[in-house]
Amino acid sequence: MNYKTPGVYVEEEAKFPPSVAQVETAIPAFIGYTEKGTQNKPTRISSMLEFEELFGKAYAETFAVAFKEGAATAVQPKVSDFKMYYAMQMYFANGGGPCYIVSVGDYDDDVTVGTIATQQGTLLYGLELLKKEDEPTLIVFPDLQDRVASAADVDAAKAILATAKKNEILATASKVAAQVVADAVNNAADVELAQTVVQAATTVTDAVTDAQVAAEALAEVAAVTFNQEIEAATEVAARSAAKAVADAVVESKLAGAILADIKEAANSVAQNFENDLITATSITSDANEELDNTKKIDASSSEPLVINAIKNTYSLYDSALDQAESMKDRFVIIDVLGDDATFRNKVTSTGLKYGAAYYPNLKTILTYTFKEDKVAVMGASGATTLAELKLKNSELYNQAKAAIESKKVVLAPSSTMAGVYAKVDSTSG
C-alpha cells in the first residue's frame, strides 16, 4: 500500500487466497488432419515443439524447378489441403499459448467435412468430440481453407497450367533437337563425326519446326496463346539442346574416347532432355488435375453439385455455431471461404453472436515443406530431382532451393487471429 500523507494506518493481512483464480479464457481448439494421424481425442499442448512431438510436421508439397537460360523457376502444380501445421506456426508466432488439437486423420486421408456426427475421420466428428471438453473456448478449422475456391483461385490455377504447358512446349523442342544431333552421331563414322555433329547442331530448323507443330497442338489443348514470344523461346530451347549434345561429343573426343563412348555421351545427353519432357508432361497433368478440382469447388459456379459441395462445407461452421450457442462457453473463428458473397449466402444467421469471420487470406513469411528427392528438376546437368542436383551442382541447387522458398504459404486468417485472441486474453484479461 502507498501512503501519501502522514498518519496511522491499519493493514489487514489476508488469511485465505482470492476466492476466484485467474484462468485463461481464450483456449482454442484446432480441428483437422496431422502427419501422425488419428488420435480422436482433444489433446492439450502448449508449444510448437510439443505439437511436432505428438502430431508431426507439415505435408510435403509438390514442386518442380525448371532452368532456362541460367534462371530457376519453381512451379507448384498442386497445393495440399493440409494446413494444420502452418496454422499452428502462425498461432504461436502471434502470441498463442495453451490450446487443444483434435486430429481426426492423417495425410493419407481426404479432408472431409462429414454429414453424420459419429462418422470418424471427419471434421464434424472432431467437433462432436470437443463437446466433452470444458476448457476450450475457441473453435478453428484450419483445413477448410481450400474447400471453396474463389474466382481468383481459379485464375491462379489456370496461370499455373499455362506455365506448365509452356515448360512442356520448350521441353518438346529440346527433346526433338537433342535427338536430331544424337541420331547424327549414331549414324556417323568416326572420321566424319565432328563435321556431322557440327552440321546437325547448327541446322536444327526441321527439329524446331517439328517441335513448334507439337507445341501448337499442346497450346491449343491448354488454351495457351502460342505467340511470338513462345515461338522464339522454342527455337532458343531447341538450339541450346542441340548444342548441349554437340558439346558432349566434342568433350568426349578431346578425352580420347572411342566411337562407342562418343555415341554413348551423345545419347546420354539426349536422354536427359527426354527425361525433362517426361517430367514436364507429368507436371502439366498435375496442373490440369488441380484446375479441374478447383473448378469443382468454384464459388461462382452455378452447377448444382458444386453448390451442394460448398453448402456442405459451410454447414460445418453452422454446426460449430450451434454448439457454441448451445453450450454458451465457446466462440467460432470463421474463415470466409470463396468470397464474401458466398459467405453471406451460405452461413445461417443462427448463433452468429457466437462467431466472427475474417477475410482475406494472408500471404505469410512461412515457406512450404518439401522433400528434395521428390522435387522434379528440368534442364539442369542431367539431374532429375533436387536431391541429385545437390550432389552434381551446388550453385544450381541453391538457385532451385531459393526459387522454391520464394513461394510463401498463403493461409486463412483464423489461426493467426486465434493467437491474437489468446495473447490479448493473457496480457489484458
Mean pLDDT: 84
How much of the sequence is in beta strands? 5-15%
Rg result: 29 Å
Based on DSSP secondary structure assignment, what is the total number of beta strands?
11
CATH architecture annotation of the largest domain: 3-Layer(aba) Sandwich
Domains (count): 2
Strand order in the sheet with the most strands: 2-5-1-6-7-8
Helix content: 40-55%
Number of helices: 13
**Poorly predicted residue ranges:** none
The end-to-end distance, rounded to whole angstroms, is 23 Å
Instruction: Tell me the major beta sheet.
Output: 6 strands, mixed
* CATH uppermost class of the largest domain: Alpha Beta
Global structural class:
alpha/beta
The best one-word shape is elongated
The ordered string of helix (H) and strand (E) elements is EEHEEHEHEHHHHHHEHEEEHHEH
**CATH fold naming of the largest domain:** Rossmann fold
